[in-house]
Design brief:
- By secondary structure, the chain is an alpha/beta fold.
- It is about 35% helix and about 15% strand.
- Helix 2 runs parallel beside helix 3.
- The longest helix has 18 residues.
- The chain is globular, with a radius of gyration of 14 Å.
- It starts with 13 loop residues before the first strand and ends in a 21-residue tail after the last helix.
- The N terminus and C terminus are likely disordered.
């Protein structure tokens, strides 16, 4: 079984936007995702208004967000705001504590990724969600063996 980071079967172009206030996390995650076959990082944002503008401009399939943004009122409210602009986008919420997961799913997130996982595990969770999202959309290629992820959860760690 191959890792999603080294798979040879390309994904249908899954367009991914990364939103995190910490430039180190944002740039590292975007860079690691970009190394994977068949995905395209279409942008990165550090605040809610920038994220919404990027969603409008890039039409991502997947948006990975850390809701701890500079705007105190943004938080998980960014999830439905993204869906108002791009209803088909899969929004994955990324946080330091699993305790955020129920609230994230309640506002419409398609999954939760714990930042305490190792970096490869975080990227594999995003790529696994990309496979699951692709499977749920007509005309998409099915996930490779061992690469399935439950549609409502990006990681179970």
């Amino acid at each position: 079984m191959s890792s999603p980071l080294t798979r040879s079967t390309p994904l249908s172009a899954q367009r991914i936007l990364v939103v995190d206030a910490d430039h180190r996390v944002r740039d590292s995650l975007a860079g690691l995702i970009a190394l994977a076959d068949g995905v395209e990082v279409v942008g990165a944002a550090s605040e809610a208004a920038e994220a919404i503008a990027a969603v409008r401009r890039t039409h991502p399939d997947i948006v990975v967000i850390d809701p701890r943004l500079p705007e105190l009122e943004a938080g998980l409210a960014l999830v439905p705001a993204i869906h108002r602009v791009q209803p088909a986008a899969l929004v994955l919420v990324m946080g330091w504590s699993q305790s955020l997961e129920p609230a994230a799913l309640a506002v419409g997130a398609g999954g939760f990724i714990c930042k305490t996982d190792d970096p490869v595990g975080v990227v594999e969770a995003v790529l696994g969600a990309a496979h699951a999202a692709r499977d749920a959309r007509p005309g998409r290629i099915s996930a490779p063996p061992g690469g399935s992820v439950a549609p409502r959860r990006a990681a179970l760690r």
